[in-house]
Amino acid sequence: MSEWRRIGFLSDLHTGSLCAPWPDEYEMAAGNVICASPAQRILRQYLDDFLSHEMREAEMIFLLGDMCQGENRKETGRGTTTPELDAQVGAAAMLIDKIVDSRPIRGVTGSGYHQAMSMSLDKALLQKIGGNDLEKLRHVRIAGPGCVIQVAHGVGGGAIYDGTVTDRESIMLDVAEARQKIPYHVDLIVRGHLHHFFYMEDCSRAFLRLPCWQTWYGWDGLIGTYGKKQPDLGGVCVDCGPKGRIVLHKRLYPAIQIHDGLMGV
Ligand SMILES: [Fe+2]
């Protein structure tokens, strides 16, 4: 086995949001077909591009949660391509069809708001594509290089500056390791959730915050920090090597404005 192994990450696909990728045509159980909007078509092309390049070489894949949008229950379904959850899971599976082969796919569950009341849509997607559910947070030792990765979807914590949250999480992990609460060293922390790409390495470990696949959407909580909350669209793979060495391969795509575009009057 090679001392270097490539691992692919996908996070925050949000299939079912009007601001996220959707298959060009998706046939519902009742026989009607839901087509992608022009913006959704571009987002789907971005996703296909990433899956056909960096991700093609990945030996194993992790889904970091919020792969479906869910019901948008506070908005009573507004903002969804369809609030039908089976269709969202089916469409997400169709979108990532290219990477569903013999490679292992594992995933964590994302934010509660993007699950159904009675079940996790992230789990339902993993079940549908034959992946393994890692629940909320898991440590994974990569055979070969032996590096340990901690994967979780992550929480917000009012983060304006990504470095503040990542540095804090990393230092707290150092403390837990020093207290022998965790009997191994974590080389890489991976998170999704904030829809921003961010990467940091210090003397202890690396921290990767994944980009997303959903454009900016009109939600009150995103208005006060509009400039900061412009999402990074794309995906990341990492090559893990001996002694915790990490080489990053990221692919980011131009923003698409749906609800916040410039209009002439
Ligand atoms: Fe998200």
Mean pLDDT: 94
Query: What topology, given as strand order, has the largest sheet?
Result: 6-5-4-1-12-13
Largest sheet: 6 strands, mixed
* Count of spatially separate domains: 1
Low-confidence stretches: none
Tertiary shape:
globular
Helical fraction equals 10-25%
The counted number of beta strands is 13
**CATH class term:** Alpha Beta
- What is the string of helix and strand elements? EEEHEHEHEEEHEEEEE
**Based on the structure, what is the oligomeric state of the protein chains?**
single chain
% residues in beta strands: 15-25%
Helices and strands: which structural class? alpha/beta
The CATH superfamily is known as: Metallo-dependent phosphatases
Alpha carbon gyration radius? 18 Å
CATH architecture, please? 4-Layer Sandwich
Bound molecules: fe (ii) ion
So how many helices?
Answer: 4
